[in-house]
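Chain A, query sequence.
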Amino acid sequence: MKTGYSKQIQERINGADDGTIFVNSDFADIADSETTRRNLNRLTQIGMLRRILKGVYEKPKYSKLLDEYVAADPDAVAKALARSYHWTIVPCGNTALNLLGLSTQVTAVWSYISDGPYKTYEWNSTKLEFKHRTNKEITGLSYMTSLVIQALKTLGRTNVTAEIIQTLSEKLSEDEKQACLKEATESTDWVYETIRKMCGGDTQ
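Chain A, predicted structure.
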């Protein structure tokens, strides 16, 4: 028989989009971690969830076109792990370029800078890597500002073309541009200068 906890946990999962990643702490307002763990294990056994890593579950997404379940989104898994451990993370390297549409190269390792410890996780043919960085690279910056800074640093000054600036400018909403202009003032001069061009700030 379903307990009130089980029903609430199941309802939350039912209400989420297919492909959503869950960790135990996502249900902390419903039940204690042991009750949650037992419920998530049971839902995995009946196929409602798929276990990706220990303590990380996915509501599977089925593709009619491919006639199979779609692989879990590594970025969503990384964000779920960060939620679970209370880390602040930002994609870096090729991962940042991929997420901003600046590279189509398939990345073998999904890399993130983090204020947590250095950790790697692997499942199927996917690898996540969290690299510890000082807080000043991460704290106080919105996700998009951090992502743009990491992408520019990965490209390097000489590789930032007018086309890349245009692509980034089209990616960001007006609010994100305003946040970028405010928050990125501490970054390297050339990075901030690029952000000003991208966000339509004064480039003088």
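The helical segments are 4-15, 33-45, 74-85, 93-99, 143-155, 162-171, 174-183, 189-198. The CA atoms of residues 52 and 123 lie 7 Å apart.
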